[in-house]
Amino acid sequence: MTEFTLSKDADGVGTITWDVPGKSMNVMSFEGLAQLDTCVDQALADDEIKGVVITSGKEGSFAGGMDLNLLAKMKDDAGDEPARGLFEGVMKIHALLRKIERAGMDPKTKKGGKPIASALPGTAAGIGMELPLATHRIFVSDNPKVKYGLPEIMVGIFPGAGGTTRLVRKLGAMAASPLLLEGKMLEAKKAKSAGMVDEVTADPVAAARDWVLNAKPADIVKPWDAKGYKMPGGAPYHPAGFMTFVGASAMVHSKTQGAFPAAKALLSAVYEGALVDFDTALKIEARWFTSVLMNPSSGAMIRSLFLNKEALDKGAVRPKDIPDQSVQKIGVLGAGMMGAGIALVSAQAGMEVVLIDRDQAAADKGKSYAETYMDKGIKRGKATPEKKNALLARITATPDLDQLKGCDLIIEAVFEDPGVKAEMTKKVEAIIPEDCIFASNTSTLPITGLAEASVRPEQFIGIHFFSPVEKMFLVEIIKGEETGDRAVAKALDYVRQIRKTPIVVNDARFFYCNRCIIPYINEGLRMLTEGVSPALIDNAARQLGFPVGPVQLNDETSIDLGAKIARATKAAMGDDYPDSPGDDLIFWMEDLGRMGRKANAGFFEYDDKGKRVEYWKGMQEKYPLADEQPDLIAVQERLMFVQVLEAVRALEEGVLEDIREGDVGAILAWGFAPWSGGPLSWLDILGTPYAAERCDQLEEQFGERFACPPLLRQMAAKGQTFYKRFDPAKTAA
User: Fold this and answer.
1) Is residue 435 a contact partner of residue 429, using CB atoms and an 8 Å limit?
2) pTM, entire model
3) Which stretches of the chain score pLDDT less than 50?
4) Residue 363 domain-assigned (yes or no)
5) DSSP secondary-structure letter at 122?
6) Residue 65 φ then ψ, to 5°
7) C-alpha 172, offset from chain centre
8) How far is residue 444 CA from its own chain's centroid?
9) Which residue range or ranges hold the 3-hydroxyacyl-CoA dehydrogenase NAD binding domain (predicted)?
10) What is the 3-state secondary structure (H, E, C) of 161-222?
């Protein structure tokens, strides 16, 4: 399979074209590296070629990154020394890119080289950006829809093919750190402003070709290869540079709380590399990159946030043999914050939206949410008045149910009360077409029970959004006992249209996500009643990588909501409801009117502008702080195990049908320790035998909520891992 080809024109410009057959976007493979190496050698050896342009044969894109099988091959080829295999393989990539960078010049005089430019017709990410950084000039398309960047940190690694070292040498540590540590993909003009690329043009190939023909010898000597080079902003031993690295270290630890190995390794590679010459810096980068790749966290993050997420986005769990169910016209029942958000993302996807509420004023208020959102986008330069008007024109806000005629999907987002939902279901089903799918956006109520109000239960399904809808990446789809395959396909196709990641679960109270989130919150509440410091609880969670701790999360989601869920669950479960001292705390806070952030009073004190000031000390009058606080690890284990055991039970009971959904859903829905790859991946890292043993210890100390599920016990006895026992590839087959 040919991935790289070399051609030359009459003017002596050689063009190396990257075009992987059968792929919508180029990815770097083992074969591709060898072919690129050959093309570079041929171009440098051919006296008729004056210079080279490296570009893509894909319209609108350059490259999307590296084929992960390449890294796997490096490890496998090294047998029982996988770290050595990875390091040596990465160093070969460094050697190739260094060859491009030096372009045949004499290493001492820096003369005799050929200019090599990269022309990026579209999106370039990962190795797709690291390769251009090794060329002498980067030309990119002015298409505002394409983006450029180094997003590796988002999947648990960092740019390890020279991208880290080159970007720091090019921009300085201060300017490069946000690009490397946040992994943001930038539009062309912003990428140029940041210094990542050199030229923005309508025709990158033509511009690159012109530059190659007119380049001077000095144009092809990289700054770090030139005599007297000094790093922008100063090296670590320079007073200014020292402060830069102090600030960068503080920024990393502030954002990651030390929970993400890749961020610490990246910063180490940057700091240590800045102390030495360029080639030694590349070797240091390769060592840290190898260290990260050998960390089980890296593999788990790549699997969940890249491979598994991509598979779910592409319909891995979609019912077979169901034709396309893309939504044309959607009805949204309820114009509150949730309904307004659903209307917004649906209109953004080009759908015709009917937004229903009890009266015109309430419906209009819901539509104004989209207007405000677009106005903010216009101020930030991300939208235009024309786009705003077009989007608003797609939303019809009305109290008139007859407007729902012609809809092919209904999403009900009314008050979380079975009676209210049942009444609305009956009214709407009398109006909509017989083949229209009806979905409820309930967050806790079983779908099978809600479907009893429907005359077409096979077309009734749950579509659970997370708030705020426009920002959250996950949508949880819930199958009732009678939900048919077409309804599932419809829901999945709709989620694909609005560009979010779906998971499909079977019906049960709280479904999957809330089933795991609620114990996390409740465990934090239990610890408060035991006298554990709220700061210790929240910081323990943040140091595990959770975006917010359970105490703060209570305030953010509103305390009265927690009280309402507790009462409803107790009413539904009766004597089976597990009483918790956390409920008493919530009810007490509710009686005091301390409802959380929305009331400017909860577990936190707030100032007049609604900003958190400090934890509310009044709580300690009822629940005094214990004289002896628990160990940090003990708090973290309670918070982790109480969630992962629910994930195991959900898999055991058939609520989860695919372990990929359990891991991806946990990370995207509530930010479950992303470094772990998700709850089931975390148990694989921990080892099922140790996990089962620790469950027994926690159960003895804290109660039956930590009891080891039979499935975990069985797997521990056999030494099994979740990703081997429940291999998604075998399940799909």
Assistant:
1) no
2) 0.88
3) 733
4) yes
5) S
6) 135, -155
7) 27
8) 24
9) 329-507
10) CCHHHHHHHHHCHHHHHHHHHHCCCEEHHHHHHHCCCCEEECCHHHHHHHHHHHCCHHHHCC
Number of folded domains that form the chain: 3
Rounded CA separation 102/99 (Å): 5
In a domain, residue 444? The reply is yes
Query: What are the strands, taking DSSP E only, across 480-617?
Result: 501-506, 604-606, 612-615
Q: What are phi and psi of 582, to 5 degrees?
A: -65, -35
Q: Do 501 and 638 reside in the same domain of the chain?
A: no
Instruction: Tell me how many degrees the CA angle 624-629-633 measures, rounded to the nearest 5.
Output: 140
DSSP code, position 306: I
Same domain, 287 and 339: no
Percent above pLDDT 70 for the chain = 97
How far apart are the C-alpha atoms of 138 and 54, rounded to whole Å?
A: 10
- Find out whether the peptide bond into 204 is cis, omega within 30 degrees of 0: no
Distance CA 504, CA 727 (A): 17
Structural domain that includes position 26: 4-294
The percent of the chain in helix, strand and coil, each rounded to the nearest 5, is 55, 15, 35
Q: Which residues of 33-57 are buried (b: 16+ CB within 10 A; e: fewer)?
A: bebbbebbeebbeeeebbbbbbbbe
* Calpha distance 332→462 (Å, rounded): 14
Give me the pLDDT at residue 208, please.
97
- At residue 476, what are phi and psi to the nearest 5 degrees? -100, 120
Which domain-ending residue is among 509, 533, 564? 509
Tell me, yes or no, whether 630 lies in a domain: yes
Q: Say what angle helices 688-702 and 679-686 make with each other, to 10 degrees.
A: 100
Instruction: Write the CATH number for 566.
Output: 1.10.1040.50
What's the rounded Cα separation, in Å, for the pair 115 and 252?
Answer: 37
CATH number of the domain enclosing 228:
3.90.226.10
186-187 and 147-149 as β-strands: parallel, antiparallel, unpaired? Answer: antiparallel
Task: Specify whether the CB–CB gap between 344 and 468 falls below 8 A.
Answer: no
523 and 499 fall within a common domain: no
pLDDT at 733: 45
Residue with the two structure tokens 């579209």: 122
Q: 428-462 as b/e, with b when 16 or more CB fall inside 10 Å?
A: bbeebeeebbbbbbbbbbbbbbbbebbebbebbbb
3 and 19 in contact (C-beta within 8 Å)? yes
If asked whether residues 411 and 467 sit together in one domain, one would say yes
The answer to whether residues 687 and 568 belong to one domain is: yes
Structure tokens belonging to residue 252: 């990393």
Beta carbons within 8 Å of 442's beta carbon, 6+ residues apart:
416, 421, 450, 462, 464
- Any domain includes 614: no
Query: Residues 158, 182: contact at Cβ < 8 Å?
Result: no
Q: Sheet harboring 147-149: ordered strands across?
A: 61-63, 123-125, 147-149, 186-187
